[in-house]
Each structure stands twice: as C-alpha cells, then as structure tokens.
Amino acid sequence: MSNGVGRAQIGQWYLHWDKGELFQVIAIDEQTRTIEIQNFDGDIDEIDQAAWQGLPIGFAEPPEDWTGPVDDVAVDDLGYSETDMEAKDWEAPLEPIRAGQEEWQDERDESERDPEGEGLPPLLREEREHR
What we know:
This protein is α+β, with helices and mostly antiparallel strands. It has a domain at 1-66: Roll (SH3 type barrels), CATH 2.30.30. The chain is built from 4 helices and 5 strands; from the N terminus they run ββββαβααα. It has helices spanning 49-52, 87-91, 110-113, 122-129, and strands at residues 13-16, 21-29, 34-39, 44-48, 57-60. It has a 5-stranded antiparallel β-sheet with strand order 4-3-2-1-5.
C-alpha cells in the first residue's frame, strides 16, 4: 500500500490523516532506513522507511505560526515585525545629531540630582538624614 506522497522530503510538512496532526520531516537516515519527524508541538519521532509507505498521510502547507516546535524564537527571527520600515519612513528627514553631552549624562552633583536621597540605598539614606 502506498501513501501517495512517495519518498519523504526533508523540510516538507505532512498531515497524518488518522490523527489530524501536522509534522515535518527533519532528517532521513539512509543507513538505518529511518525518517525522523517533528510534530507541530515539538515531539520528535522516528519512522521506519517501510512503514512510511503505509502511513495515511498527505502533503500539507507549513502552519502559519511555525514556531510551535521551536524553543525560544525571538520575534525578529520570524521574518516579520511591526518595526519594519516602510517607504515613507525612508523619506522622512533624519533627526539632527546633537554634539556634546548625551541626555543620560548629568554632570550635577548627586545631592543636586536627588536632594531627598530617594535613590540611595537605605543605609546611606539614613546616614544622610542624621547629618
């Protein structure tokens, strides 16, 4: 009995009709004649090549959110984000470069920046209050 998809293809997504599960072929070992698959939920399994031909499976489109089986995927790695620049962004004028002191630099004395000592650790705050 043949499954209609032929030989397994690495990277191809398949649908297991009996189970309604999506999986992807991730490796084929010709020496052991096995096919390594990864289910959408991340589980990895191995199928004998002879058993592959009898499976009730068909080709499937990759899931829209393909990150199911992948751990720790950053949004930037997905190939899309809300921070992508559009044509209008490229046409906007650049902000002028300010020479000199950066905004985060503050040359004032600490007591001028924090007269109440609120940013100090408790022990230093108590010491300052007793002066």
